[in-house]
Amino acid sequence: MRDVIGWKHAAVLAVALLAVGCSSNSKKELPPAELTKFTEEVVLKKQWSRSIGDGQGESFNMLVPAIENDRIYAADVTGVVMALDRMNGDVIWKKDLDLPVSGAVGVGYGLVMLGTLKGEVIAMDASTGEEKWRARVTSEVLAPPATNGDVVVVQTQDDRVIGLDASTGDRRWIYESTPAVLTLRGTGAPIVTNRLAVAGLSTGKVVALDTQNGVPVWEQRVAVPQGRSELDRVVDIDGGLLLSGGVLYVASYQGRVAGLELESGRVLWQRDASSYAGVAQGFGNVYVSLASGTVEGIDERSSSALWSNDSLARRQLSAPEVFSSYVAVGDLEGYLHLLSQVDGRFVGRERIDSDGLRARPLVVGDMIYVFGNSGKLEALTIR
């Protein structure tokens, strides 16, 4: 039977306590690091703000908005789905599905796609918000579905990857794998190209499937489970995959961060790391939020660390995002931090949502979009 750790930080804490040894009962959980002062070089200016229902809710949901053209789409845990003008925040349409949304939001080819705790996938018309179809899958969906216009691909909590007809929602194929005994609660969103559907699994593997029939094209292991206990052996790929220039970037918990060749799965470079949040890429470098709260900049050519900033230890960081010449990352107290891409020093900071920032920030042009845990969606620029 597979067990699921409901809160990622609980798993991180448990592993950390095991790492320091079980012989001492005097060990106590360390609090999040206090924020250090710095000379502010960059000031963020709010362009607009909008409330998206109840946001992430009380469970450890990872609902991330999605942007296509001049619209941004967002959903909350209760099934409120909204399409907004990304430039000014005006509401284009709003729907209330009254469903426990847990995988959101996927967008593309005229569809807005959501997954639920009840194991449903809902496709909506991106222009109007009208429901086009819904399909039943094998278990809860904790990450956004993805599409290439022909097939909608969804990854379920039980490590199945399912291809649905983009027009009707009918199942075309299913890829089944044996999940790990113990996992973090979550999955990464699949990436879909014309030919490949790529997903990261709870066993530390990345699999690329043929979009026409779900047959594996290649598999690559990014992390090898190690240790005596099942907690020690958790190697989920939860932070999502990133595709840029034919290179697939992936990070696993208690494993590695790596760059893979998309077409073959060949490892181009790799480095030991532990992350449940994910990576960003820019200017030949990779940026990763580690489970410890450290943010690292990594040189793709040598796989060596360019810099490391551990000042945000235990602050449960979001995935990073490249914004202008900076790296943006959110934390559990709702601060958005800007770090220099050159040396990782702090250059700016803005508090967005006191309930915290769990979702990866989104960047288009000179604007960054931040979705707070309470449901506050805010667009900011550099002043």
Write a structural description.
The structure is a single chain. This protein has one domain: YVTN repeat-like/Quinoprotein amine dehydrogenase (Methylamine Dehydrogenase, Chain H, 7 Propeller). The chain contains one helix and 34 strands. The protein has one helix at 8-20; strands at 3-5, 44-51, 66-68, 71-75, 80-85, 91-96, 101-108, 111-116, 120-125, 131-136, 146-147, 151-155, 161-165, 171-175, 182-184, 191-192, 196-200, 205-210, 216-221, 242-244, 247-251, 255-261, 267-273, 278-282, 285-289, 295-299, 305-309, 321-323, 326-330, 335-340, 346-351, 362-364, 367-371, 376-382. Strands 2-34-33-32 form a four-stranded antiparallel beta sheet, with no helix packed on it. The chain has a four-stranded antiparallel beta sheet with strand order 3-4-5-6, with no helix packed on it. It has a four-stranded antiparallel beta sheet with strand order 7-8-9-10, with no helix packed on it. Strand 11 and strand 12 (151-155) form a beta hairpin. It comes from Pseudomonas putida (Arthrobacter siderocapsulatus). InterPro entries: BamB, PQQ_b-propeller_rpt, PQQ_rpt_dom, Quinoprotein_ADH-like_sf, WD40/YVTN_repeat-like_dom_sf. One of its GO terms (cellular component) is cell outer membrane. Part of the outer membrane protein assembly complex, which is involved in assembly and insertion of beta-barrel proteins into the outer membrane.
